[in-house]
Amino acid sequence: MQFGIFTVGDVTTDPTTGRTPTEHERITATVAIAKKAEEVGLDVFATGQHHNPPFIPSAPTTTLAYIAAQTERIILSTSTTLITTTDPVRIAEDYATLQHLSGGRMDLMMGRGNTGPVYPWFGKDIRDGIPLAIENYALLHRLWCEEVVNWQGKYRTPLQGFTSTPRPLDGIPPFVWHGSIRSPEIAEQAAYYGDGFFSNHIFWPASHTKQMVQLYRRRFEHYGHGTADQAIVGLGGQVFMRKNSQDAVREFRPYFDNAPVYGHGPSLEEFTSQTPLTVGSPQEVIEKTLGFREYAGDYQRQLWLLDHAGLPLKTVLEQLDILGEEVVPVLRKEFAALKPAHVPDAPTHASRLADALSTPSVPSTDATLEVTK
What we know:
The protein is of the alpha/beta class. Helix content is 43%, strand content 15%. Strands 1, 2, 3, 4, 5, 8, 9, 10, 11 and 12 form a ten-stranded parallel beta sheet that branches. Helix 10 crosses helix 11.
């Protein structure tokens, strides 16, 4: 199982000091956090994609390539690649380049984002969000899997005899996760292609996440990619830890209460009881994370959000130390003991290349993915 962190790259005032970091500070902090994640033994670092203040990750491939040059082992990913408003040709080219530069240490997560105005900024209509996600990914998939593409769709100009360059490393396209909080159509899309499904359930109760993951698993099996429990699932989470639970709650409360995404809403206690947010001791994080398996089944990737709500870099790095030293080693052991032998590990470039070499042809399905507006 892979463990890691993701960032949304928010620039938020620290409510305890009144200081707001600069964009430069947040960008350099992102690099420092990714390097620290590798240092403490985590497997994945992921960044979002935003094109509006108060966020800084508008160019994720640039950031991830810079991090790749300064790391050796950690997998670099996105927590959102905006498949709706980013040209699929640019995604194909940019992420294939990143794949080469990182030696295959990358994958990406498709998403629609949560910023409505981004659609008209890039010439799109938010009412076309789901059809855009379906059509654009269909094209991206072909650009990576086919040498020469002839294509015509509804939302971009046609392609005639087009070859996306560079070609994927070793002929293996980057592994794709489809991220969604609430859209069953995206779970269906992930299942159709046999890709991963990432349920970033940080704002939602377990019952909703269970429904989404079960839908994806059923449809994964329906499309002939394996049994339902072999589907590739990832989950999001949020943590804040101190040795004593009371200290964690006391320190994190002002950040929670003033956070733009959930401040001035449900109390910290209500939110932690109803969502995956865990504020407490390392043992509490271990117990709650192990509980995700009860409603999501055996899954392959766990990512946590740490650097948000104005938390200073020093505190984030301390959280990473706790994750790496006290939490993840226990979770690795516990999840490994629980996972049946037939459930696959999280895909990597190396494992997918080995599979491709041992299986020359990949069976296709006659089913058609259709989504109506």
